[in-house]
Amino acid sequence: MSTTIAPRQETSAPRQEASDRAVAENSLGRKLVAPALVLMLLVTAFPMLRALWLSLFDYSLTAPDDQKFIGLTNYVTALTDPLFWSTTLNTVFIMVVTVAVELVIGFIFAMVMHRVIFARGVIRTSILIPYGIITVVSGFAWQFAFSNTNGFINGWLPLIEDNFNWFGEYGSAMAAIMVSEIWKTTPFMSLLLLAGLAQVSEDMLEAAQVDGASWWQRLWKVILPNMRSAIMVAVLFRALDAYRIFDNIFVMTAGAQGTESVSFLTYRQVIEQFQLGIGSALSVLLFISVLIVAFVIVKVFRVDLASARQEG
């Protein structure tokens, strides 16, 4: 009895082709990014290295000639100070709340801009107007809006007394800061999500609708999975920006009621108290924190760009 051996199917060619394409795209990406990366390093390398060097000294601007090398003492001082950890918690809290709210509202705005037919240009421009306003200007505007003497927020909220001082307590002051931040930067989030919505295949949505999928099912099973990479980019950019929040706090509360962020604490040490050594250490810690936040977000989303392009 003879045995027929079925020919083995070659399945490695498509994967090899996809791999070659990914390698070529990565090489092209590195070449395109290289000039900007070199320019950024030339501009930022010296200040970063200078800050790292100064953080190793006991250095005050009131006595510039009296510098003493103390090694990592400034870092130990910062990391063992409860004020540093309270400002870090404030920063993380602002980042998490604002980015979460902006993600929801920004997605709604992106859906409106994507689906609207009439007056599309006017609607998109209107939604993006807050992002074009300088942060300091919007901070002053919201400080006026939340004022208990001549603001209008208290009059709009029925459960709030007319003379309620939003900046008199920690919770209400933080709420005012986060509202101003959300109003200012939600358009940026919606713009990034709009780019992600444009990548969702209309054929897939129509096929899901024909199969009887409801709007919520299409949202959770088709739209959001295909926007995973765009959502990651939007959350990453906004989280890094929110973690460095300074302008709104400086304008609206000046750090009062315990509303300081890490950036504002660094500003106070360097500009107000002239402590360049500890201020430089705080700036280095802020930079490290930003890197940690970026690493965590990328790991949480676990976006495989090759599979997003359907390359294997």
Can you describe what's shown?
The protein has 312 residues and is mainly alpha-helical. The chain has one domain (55-308): Orthogonal Bundle (MetI-like fold). 72% of the residues lie in helices and 1% in strands. It contains 14 helices and two strands; from the N terminus they run αββααααααααααααα. Strands 1-2 form a two-stranded antiparallel ribbon. α3 crosses α7 and α7 runs antiparallel to α10 (228-243). Residues 1-12 and 308-312 have low confidence and may be disordered.
State the strand order across the main sheet: 1-2
**What is the annotated CATH architecture?**
Orthogonal Bundle
The total domain count is 1
CATH topology description:
MetI-like fold
Main sheet: strands, sense, barrel: 2 strands, antiparallel
User: Mind telling me the C-alpha Rg?
Assistant: 25 Å
Shape: globular
Give the helix proportion (percent range): over 70%
| SSE run | HEEHHHHHHHHHHHHH
| Overall residue-averaged pLDDT value | 84
